[in-house]
Write a structure and sequence with these properties.
The complex is a heterodimer of chains A (312) and B (469). By secondary structure, chain A is mainly alpha-helical. Chain A has helices at 5-32, 43-97, 103-124, 204-217, 220-274, 278-303, and strands spanning 145-149, 155-160, 169-172, 175-177, 184-185, 196-197, 202-203. Chain B is an alpha+beta fold and 469 residues long. In chain B, a hairpin with a 2-residue loop joins strand 6 (238-242) and strand 7. Classes of the chains: A mainly alpha (312), B alpha+beta (469).
Chain lengths: 312, 469
């Protein structure tokens, strides 16, 4: 084959430019540690990475949701536990009042129950860290319970201005939970009300008011026959709520772990997809470098010589 | 018999032939790095012999012409490959621009820790649905409302920006089509006028190697812009036709390319005089049109569909919701596609107007916010039953597919070009070694012929001296 000066330098340039571009890509793989950085590098991997990124980011958001709901749940849990001991105290008073005839003692009990009513009102209007009323259903902006009092300062009735709905939030794809319990739910469906619920017969404020009034009037028979059993319904209702809250908290815990695990799986999958095999890359790089050096050396050796050098 | 004078004449012809050979060697060496130059040789033959009684007697050498080493088949293959390379290069450049504008790059930090490509639409979409999720956990929270609105603004701004940038790529492609058409027409005119000069030079019996080189270079330049077919006439002229329409016939440029707007602003090419539309299959013009109407157009329509689905799906849920003041019926997103998607200005100035609740006057109701949040995981019928993120990932990887396929083809085409160029260099290129060895030969031949002249001179002096004796 006839080799002209053009053909040699053409070939030489083509070869070293191929080697150079190979070197550049290997070098960038080494410095970034990534074998895929642009969609054109590997479209299938890019597609997968974008999906994994979006899933991992959703997972991180679920963790945020879980943390927020955990806060609300623990606020609710504190309030529910206080409420339980309050109901227990009222139950004890109802038990002790049974068979008492001393009006001073009965009226002192009545005063205690009055205090319990005030405490219960306070718990009923509990706000979370963000100022939301936690027992108002989805009407979180205003205090859900309001009391009417008589001339002596005794609470004669408590009205509920919240609603019976709760706000669900997502903690995993398609899985929604709520840390909320409405204060009252007499609709017969949905999340049970904390203070009153038609299904369980709970109606704490009216039961406490009735207890107070019966103590004041010395109607111990009515206390024994109705108030005591009513308060038991209230206590059972609160206990149910507390155990529901505990179940929720453990659900959140599990969901948080699942989200965490999923994120780390997704991250490691992404890094598997995109990471360069450094050992392999470096070996290729050093091979390419050697080839490049050899090409330059041999090229300049051959190109610098011609018949001209040997003619005198 | 030639006689002394005849022999002297023969020697002097030999001297001038060697001199001419030297000149050509000089010319070849001077063009050693000129890629369009073809090695030239002097064609010599034995001059007409004299019939004598003892047989034909040689009268030396004569020059009959100068030829160049060209292989027309290789030339046409190189032209065809130049068209392929031109088309693919134009596609690669514009599509890589589009890819850069999408800004979906994996960076090393994002793949190792929590993924975050800070500028791309993928992360903006994730952030949007995440901010809806956050809002659903505390729907009355004003700062969460604010951040949901900001995420929405971020998404719309990114849609607008990418859309505008892709429109720029598209406009640049149209400008390139126009420029390349103008360059092609210039080349066609040049070829026609070179045809004329070559034909007249060859009709006068001369050779027009330099003009042929020049025409070959022009043809290759044209091939990079538009693919064509050629036919050679007996007088050396090359006829050029593009897309079946004759553009150059002999010395006349019979027709020209014209870029025209078929009505949608996307330039096409037709023959100016014939008026027929020309579908080019090679050259940068075809690459520009292919990229514009192919991968770029589907990228644009993919983004527009995504944006319009986002607008409809979000607004359908959102408009049924109630804001903190009990008002309803507003849309969150305005506009119809990626170019004009925007966020309702009312909710931007007052995030309490974000309609997160399903019923009025329930600040803690989050059904609409939750519905919006869950939209992020839903398969949308208008997006081929993919999620918003999934559909976008698909759009990005489709562009990646298109570029990667162009890259591969371009690599192949460059390798073929390289092979053909090497082949041609082997045939037509100048070899210094060859020229140098010829040089020695010509120099020695010149010396030898000069020696003959000297000897003849001495012989003639001897002959003249005989008279005086």
């Amino acid at each position: 084959m006839r080799v002209s000066n053009d053909s040699f330098s053409n070939n030489f340039l083509y070869q070293i430019s191929q080697l150079q571009s190979q070197q550049t890509s290997l070098q960038s793989e080494t410095t970034t540690g990534l074998s895929v950085t642009q969609p054109e590098d590997n479209p299938a991997v890019m597609n997968q990475v974008l999906n994994l990124q979006s899933e991992a980011s959703t997972g991180a958001q679920y963790q945020n949701n879980i943390a927020t709901i955990q806060n609300s749940a623990s606020t609710a849990s504190d309030a529910l536990n206080s409420l339980q001991s309050l109901v227990e105290q009222a139950g004890e008073i109802a038990t002790q009042a049974n068979g008492l005839s001393s009006s001073t003692q009965l009226s002192s009990y009545a005063t205690q129950v009055g205090q319990l009513i005030q405490q219960a009102l306070q718990l009923a209007n509990t706000q979370d860290a963000n100022g939301n009323y936690i027992f108002g259903g989805t009407d979180t902006g205003s205090a859900p319970f309001a009391a009417t009092t008589d001339a002596n300062g005794n609470v004669t009735g408590v009205t509920y201005t919240g609603n019976a709905s709760v706000a669900d939030s997502e903690i995993a794809p398609g899985l929604t939970v709520s840390a909320q319990n409405p204060g009252e739910n007499n609709t017969g469906s949905g999340t049970e009300g904390v203070f009153a619920d038609s299904r369980t017969g709970a109606d704490l404020f009216n039961h406490l008011i009735s207890l107070q009034q019966n103590l004041q009037s010395g109607n111990t028979g009515a206390i024994a026959s109705t108030d005591k059993s009513n308060l038991t319904k209230d206590e059972n209702n609160v206990v149910t709520q507390i155990s529901g809250n505990a179940v929720l908290q453990s659900t959140l815990q599990v969901a948080g772990n699942v989200a965490q695990q999923q994120i780390s799986t997704e991250n490691s999958q992404m890094s598997n997809d995109t990471s360069a095999n450094l050992a392999q890359t470096l070996t290729h790089l050093s091979q390419t470098q050697t080839a490049y050096e050899a090409a330059l050396e041999s090229g300049t050796m051959v190109m610098s010589l011609s018949l001209v050098d040997f003619l005198s | 018999m030639l006689g002394l004078f005849g022999a002297l004449d023969m020697a002097s012809r030999s001297l001038s032939v060697q001199q001419e050979e030297m000149t050509l060697t000089g010319q070849n060496l001077a063009n050693v790095s000129n890629p369009s130059y073809a090695d030239e040789q002097l064609v010599t033959s034995q001059s007409v012999p004299l019939p004598t009684q003892i047989g034909d007697e040689g009268t030396g050498v004569q020059m009959t012409g100068i030829t160049e080493s060209r292989n027309p088949l290789l030339d046409s293959q190189i032209q065809a490959e130049a068209s392929t390379t031109g088309s693919l290069t134009a596609q690669q450049t514009s599509l890589q621009n589009a890819e850069a504008y999408l800004d979906e790059q994996i960076s090393s930090t994002s793949s190792l820790s929590v993924p975050d490509s800070p500028n791309g639409l993928a992360s903006d979409l994730s952030n949007l649905f995440n901010s809806f999720q956050s809002l659903s956990t505390d729907p009355s929270n004003l700062s969460l409302r604010q951040s949901a609105v900001e995420s929405a603004q971020q998404v719309t701004a990114q849609f607008n920006q990418v859309s505008a940038q892709l429109a720029t790529v598209q406009a640049n492609l149209n400008t390139s089509v126009q420029n390349d058409v103008a360059s092609s027409n210039q080349d066609l005119n040049t070829i026609a006028s070179l045809n004329q000069q070559i034909a007249s030079a060859e009709a006068a019996g001369g050779s027009a190697n330099q003009l042929v080189d020049q025409r070959e270079q022009t043809l290759e330049n044209l091939a990079g812009l538009a693919n064509f077919s050629t036919s050679t006439e007996a007088n050396g002229a090359i006829n050029v036709s593009i897309g079946g329409v004759t553009m150059v016939s002999g010395a006349t440029a019979t027709d020209q390319l014209q870029a025209y707007d078929p009505g949608n602003g996307q330039l096409q090419v037709r023959a100016q005089n014939a008026g027929t539309q020309i579908t080019l299959t090679g050259g940068s013009i075809s690459g520009e049109i292919t990229a514009r109407d192919g991968a770029l157009a589907s990228l644009q329509s993919g983004l527009n569909t995504l944006a319009s689905q986002l607008i409809t799906q979000v607004n359908t849920i959102y408009s049924a919701g109630y804001d903190l003041n009990g008002n309803t019926g507003q849309d969150l997103f305005t506009g119809t596609d990626a170019s004009d998607i925007g966020v309702n200005s009312n909710v931007v100035t007052d995030p309490s107007q974000f309609q997160a609740a399903s019923v009025p006057n329930a600040a803690g109701d989050n059904k609409v916010a939750l519905g919006l949040a869950q939209l992020g995981n839903q398969n949308v019928a208008g997006l081929n039953n993919q999620t918003f993120s999934g559909n976008y990932a698909q759009t990005v990887s489709s562009l990646g597919d298109a570029i990667s396929s162009v890259n591969d083809q371009l690599g192949n085409s460059q390798a073929v070009s390289q092979m053909l160029t090497t082949d041609r260099a082997a045939t037509s290129g100048v070899s210094i070694d060859q020229e140098m060895s010829n040089l020695i030969q010509y120099q020695k031949a010149y010396e030898a012929s000069a020696e003959i002249v000297t000897t003849l001179n001495e012989m003639m002096q001897t002959a003249v001296a005989m008279k005086t004796v």
